[in-house]
User: Which sequence fits this backbone?
């Protein structure tokens, strides 16, 4: 069993100022095996902007010196965009909102992956990206949430495609789409009233880290939830 967590390792958290990103940073800082946690976000990193590729490239270059990293976690993403929540019907769809949903949840993250993946160590390593169960095409039973669902489904395909490419050079790299559950945060607050199980960020992250510890190399990407269960694509 090859794992990055049995020996000293270095970690990088992107989107470290959000609820889940902060929880990842805290959990990793408390792990005695984690000798360094680098944090990237609009709050931690001057000029970092998910919608500006030049700023993503500049931040990757700026954090390269603290690497290479055994674990990179991208905790970026958006549900409410410019004050507008997910669309519930076809009649609510707007070009600008759909475009920005794809920019924030798929295009920006895959460009982050493009620039940060070279900072992974050779050998056993993990690149993990927050996704969402609603991005599962198979699991979609309720409809609605058009832009968020579609942008997360696009993200999942981008992760799968990138995993196949990265594994041609490093068969031990795991690319992972993570489903964190519904977590108590500013992002979920408007939509959490009817949720049966609302997780604290620390509990969600503890589950996701346990899931990451158990992942073995496989062809393509993993899609798992905070309980370590596979999520259908």
Assistant:
């Amino acid at each position: 069993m090859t794992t990055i967590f049995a020996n000293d390792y270095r970690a990088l958290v992107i989107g470290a100022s959000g609820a889940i990103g902060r929880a990842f940073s805290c959990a990793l800082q408390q792990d005695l095996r984690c000798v360094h946690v680098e944090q990237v976000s609009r709050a931690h990193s001057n000029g970092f902007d998910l919608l500006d590729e030049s700023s993503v490239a500049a931040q990757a270059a700026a954090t390269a010196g603290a690497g290479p990293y055994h674990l990179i976690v991208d905790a970026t993403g958006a549900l409410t965009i410019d004050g507008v929540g997910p669309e519930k019907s076809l009649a609510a769809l707007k070009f600008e909102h759909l475009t920005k949903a794809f920019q924030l949840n798929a295009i920006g993250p895959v460009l982050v992956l493009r620039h940060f993946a070279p900072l992974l160590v050779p050998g056993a390593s993990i690149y993990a990206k927050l996704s969402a169960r609603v991005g599962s095409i198979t699991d979609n039973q309720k409809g609605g949430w058009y832009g968020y669902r579609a942008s997360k489904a696009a993200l999942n395909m981008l992760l799968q495609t990138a995993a196949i490419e990265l594994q041609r050079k490093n068969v031990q790299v795991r690319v992972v789409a993570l489903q964190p559950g519904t977590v108590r945060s500013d992002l979920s607050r408007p939509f959490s009233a009817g949720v049966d199980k609302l997780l604290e960020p620390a509990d969600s992250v503890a589950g996701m880290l346990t899931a990451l510890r158990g992942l073995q190399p496989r062809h393509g990407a993993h899609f798992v939830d905070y309980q370590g269960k596979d999520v259908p694509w």
